[in-house]
Amino acid sequence: MALPDSVITCLSQPVHYAICKLGFEKKDTYDINNILSGNGEVCWQAVTEHVCYLESDQSVDYIKSIRSLGPVCESVNLYFKSLTKEQFVIQYASWFHWTNCTEVFLEVFDVLQYTQATEVALGLMKLTSCLERALGDVYLLKGNDCPFLLRDLLASEQLADVFGQAVMNVLRVFIGSPRGLNLRNVLWHGFASPQEIPAKYCAMLLFLTAGLGQLLQPYLLQTKSVLVHRPYVIFISLEELDAFPGKYLNDEILSIAEELVKLSSFVLKIMLPFWIAALTAFKQSRYADSVILLLPQLEAGLRLLFTTTNKCPNRLLTAESSALYTTFDEMLAKHLDNEEVNQLPVVLEEPAMESDFLWDFLNHQEGPRIRDRLSHGEINLETFPREVANQIVGFAVTILCRFSDEDMFSLKEHMVIKPLMNCASCYRSRFHPISRLKKQVLECMKSIHLWPELPTVPEEQVQKIKGLEGNAEANTLILMISEIISQLQHYMPQNCCSSDDPINSVLTERLLVELCDTRICTLYSPRPVLEVVVLLRKISAQCHQVSQQVIAGAGLRYTQWVNKTLRSRQRHNYRRMLTSIKFLSPVLKLILLLITLELVSVHSVCKKNPFDYQQYLKFLKSVLQYTENLVTYTSPEKNKWDETMELTKMTLIKIRKISDRKLMLIHLAM
């Protein structure tokens, strides 16, 4: 592994030159009054004159523009340093209101007064995040779907219509274009060290943001538009995120972490100030700041491992516009861009844990996607929850520990840090589609288990309905369910089926919990597996909706029965419903059991006969069609219980037939 001490920069030579030198080549002193009106407003025409264009196609000449804007940025920085906080607030605070993050921009002003490199970099990351979100809100004044990438947002016609193309070109010199300074990306992806980000660029972006507010106000008045701010993403079900409980992240373990960052081979020494600042922020309850600082450093550390193990040391550096950055997405992929196997998971001590955690918290669509949401301004920084910060800090401590010297073994076994390491080793994916399916199945089963508790009229008041209860058809349904359970028994834990009552002994929540607890590899799931999981999730979701409709409908009809507000036909239909759901309950439980058994064997289908697999997909789609019809028939608008039972009978016959032919996935897997 490359020695972290030997790395002096993660910026390639052209990028390092553009950020650290190009804007300092012109030594002219620029008069701030050239771009500042008497009342403190930005003179945009004077600013835009510093953007240069190529003669060939009139596109922005980024090299000349950065060189020309360098003295302007320095002048702005010195100007801000000359202001007191009170003067700045009076002059500029109102111009930041359009961002919905005024306090963040006021904090950036405070940071610029002291020019502490790490805090300037943090301020710039927060500024670009909030600015991007605000520009997206402006975009939606004229467009529908806001671009996900900042470079596409800044290049959009919609923003050019509001602010002017020349103004947008100024912004693109600083952020959004890989041919410009690209300050947002080099910071958020962990390429720039604190000392490589000139404070004057942070000051200039603060100045430009105020200037955008000055341009936006007359536009809104002229067009009679109202700028609507999209709501922030709110983390729900925080208990699902609790892989590293906060009780393990006390002052003692944070002190150990501060020692680890100085010794761990995972930490590039040029990035050490970021790590120290992140841990300090966490101790000060500045949870958003802590995570913003840590995420790029986790990426930088993993990039160091990735480039070393895959023998591509040049990928440690930023890339120019002609190539791609080496980011989390590629480092977590199964294969490299040349189709060779990615060696990073192989060298990790706990490859599944490391990758599963990162995929869960950064990539999976149903996960918190913390990096994306923070960097794109989707999260309220002031209310960022500690529960989320606990996970990133906890993970960071464990990975620091894993990549510390052998001499640190005693520290790894320290009674304070060992519980945290145990949390890491026990981690299982929570937001992979397979994991979400498990959760869906158990939630649906809990819902169906509520059916026996539903309010119902006394049995003697429910007249026997011809065609179902107490006749051959009912016995047929029960017999088919019992036969299918008998066929499935070979694929279930031993002693879970009672010969006296196979249905009630097998179709239990306890069995599903036990089956769902089976560890299934979620990392790099092949496409056929994901296709099956998508279908199973749809089936499970439909079953849950049926259960919810039954619960709601039974409660409503019972109340109407008691209050004697049901008409004759409605009373008959209610009786039919009460009778039908006695048989519908085990059928839905059976489907959930099938889903779970098939899920346990889901990876095997990819290795079997493709024809059988396609046949199985057809079967799954037919079960999905059944559950979709159930949703329709059991809805309050339809209440078609005769059709429900007839459809159920046909589906059970199909399940039994498919099972007999051994075309089900659980059979394919054997």
TrEMBL record:
Domain DUF4209: 131-211
Entry-linked InterPro entries: DUF4209 (IPR025209), ERMARD (IPR039635)
Pfam families on file: DUF4209
Protein name in the entry: EMARD protein
Name of the coding gene: Ermard
